[in-house]
Structure formats: C-alpha cells, structure tokens
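Working notes for the structural subgroup meeting. M.R. asked for a predicted model of this chain before we commit to crystallization trials. I am recording the input and output together here so anyone reviewing the notebook later can reproduce the run.

Input as submitted:
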Amino acid sequence: MTTFSATWKGKPPKGFCIDNKAIALPAKVRELLVSKTPTFPQRFGIHLKNYRLSLGLTQEVMAERLGLCSRTMLSRYERGKSEALLSTIYLWAKRLGVDPSVLLPPPNAE
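Returned structure, recorded in token form:
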C-alpha cells in the first residue's frame, strides 16, 4: 500500500494511510480500481451523456424527449446504474429522430 505524507487542515481525505493506519477507500473508488474495463451500461451512459451535451440539452429536457418519468432516471442511465434494453434504445432513437447507432457507444477497443 502506498503511503502519502501531507499536512491537512481538518480531516484528511478518505482512502489514504495516515500514521501507517489504513483508511478505507470509498465504495466508488474501490469499484473503479477493481473494474478496469467499463461495463456496457457504463460505456453507454458516458456516450449518452456526451450525446446529450453535444445537443446542448439539460437532463430535464432530454428525459422529456426520451419519454422518461424524471431527470433522475436519465441520470441513472448516464451513470451506468441502470441498463437500457436494446428495444428501449431503439425507441429513444425513434423519439429523437436518429439512427439507433447514434446512441450506441463504439465497440470496446481491447
């Protein structure tokens, strides 16, 4: 385990060794370290978010266009916490007036 030597005002950031005592890493950090290759929902979410931003849309407007009940659901897709079915992606493409391939991330380059 790598140790860091630094001085903080107040509480030190989580996930470091202080005085040779390990502080647990937050769950999100552990997840990123364990999973080096993003899952399809994660890749899809990043791609969906980038597409939304390229259109200059807010999550609220995009969720409305996709027919989602709330911005929160779109946020779950963008963060890779919910997995969109292929039939759902086709429906969203139809609602946006684009080819479904526009919404799909490029293949994993491994």
